[in-house]
Amino acid sequence: MSILVKVLSYTCTQPLSSLGYFLKKCTTSDRHSTRSDLNARSRARRSTKIRAAINPPYDLGIESAAPDESSSDVWSPAVDPLGTDFSSNAVPAAMTGKDKNCVRFGFPKGSLQKSTEELFARAGLPVKVKDRNYFPTVDDDGLSLVLFRSQEIPRYVADNVLDAGICGRDWIVENGSDVIEVAELKYSKATSNPARWVVAVPEDSPVRTAEDLEGTMIASELVNTTQRFFLDRDIHGVKVEYSWGATEVKASLPGVGAIVDITETGSSLRANKLREVATILESTTRLIANKDAWEDPIKRARIEDLALLLQGAIDGKKKVGLKMNLPTASVPELSAQLPSEKSPTVSPLLDADYCAVEVVVDEGTAKDLIPVVRRMGATGIVTYPINLSIH
């Protein structure tokens, strides 16, 4: 309703003395309404822009109509009400198929994103992710990244939307994706331990084994794997409902017999007063590739090189370098203290009675070795972190 119509209606029923307050209220309300409409239209245009960027020439299962170029509603930075510039979301050439030799790589979005960024950085491949941008940049011309949820990456790799990517083994199993598992990368959100999908119930539940859940309903994000777990054990009548999140809360709801949720340390389950009944799957992070990319010599070499660097970064995180000046006569004694494959680098010094010694050891070994070499007469003992350790 226009302000004029509102004013005429108001003056017919209310005293004129209150008209000033009424006008102020009307104009404020209209401004808020207009702003809300603009925000809604802007969000819709952003969504269309991102879908359009990702869809061609690959169908990712998202339905979207091409915008009418003649319409004034077509998105452009010039007409966006909030002035947001989406030029940074331009699709890299590799994603459009124009660069045939570049590896289209699915980078995990969500819980694995931060730890994967840190891993790439240690491997000498720092990744830059801008706000509201689905195409991170990396200092490697042979690699083009796109952000996807870990759950989706196995499907898109299997369907040749992506050449390769990083995801958990759990989602390869859940989706039944036919992919090449190039490397097992033992890292996760918080630890280097495998993540576990477990059946959990409230602490006071009478359920003690998976068999006790026959005929009950279970909330799980991993629906297919959960169903297979019970069928393989001839446990029938279990209804598995998909959980959209906050799964721990559902364990105590009426009608829910148990939940299936992922855990690394079990702390979240304990915090929600839940008890583990069974483990249905253990999962580690995997670097995967599709069969076509694996048969392409150039892409395969790039994927294998990436796997080598990432594995080296994982191994390097557990090690430290150890340097010292050691009496030359003590070198054989030091060598005897090291694992058989660890031969120290020994360099002569001006003082012939001493030499410079350098060795890479496990972080836990270093703290035990330092007092030992000190008693051997070592001086200038220094430790330093290792970014890469490739055997």
UniProtKB/TrEMBL annotation:
Q: Which CDD domains does the UniProt record give?
A: PBP2_HisGL3
Q: Does the keyword GTP-binding apply?
A: no
In this chain the Histidine biosynthesis HisG C-terminal domain maps to: 317-387
Pfam families on file: HisG, HisG_C
Where in this chain does the record put each ATP phosphoribosyltransferase catalytic domain? Answer: 149-311
Q: Which GO terms describe its molecular function?
A: ATP binding; ATP phosphoribosyltransferase activity; magnesium ion binding
Q: Which GO terms describe its biological process?
A: L-histidine biosynthetic process
Residues forming coiled coils: none
Compartment(s)? Cytoplasm
Q: Which UniProt keywords apply?
A: Amino-acid biosynthesis, ATP-binding, Cytoplasm, Glycosyltransferase, Histidine biosynthesis, Magnesium, Metal-binding, Nucleotide-binding, Transferase
What InterPro entries does its record include?
Answer: ATP-PRT_HisG_long (IPR020621), ATP_PRibTrfase_cat (IPR013820), ATP_PRibTrfase_HisG (IPR001348), HisG_C (IPR013115), N-reg_PII-like_a/b (IPR011322), N-reg_PII/ATP_PRibTrfase_C (IPR015867)
Pathway per the UniProt entry: Amino-acid biosynthesis; L-histidine biosynthesis; L-histidine from 5-phospho-alpha-D-ribose 1-diphosphate: step 1/9
Query: Source organism's superkingdom?
Result: Eukaryota
| Catalysed conversion reaction | 1-(5-phospho-beta-D-ribosyl)-ATP + diphosphate = 5-phospho-alpha-D-ribose 1-diphosphate + ATP
Q: What is its EC number?
A: 2.4.2.17
Give GO cellular component annotations, separated by semicolons.
cytoplasm
- Tell me what this protein is called: ATP phosphoribosyltransferase
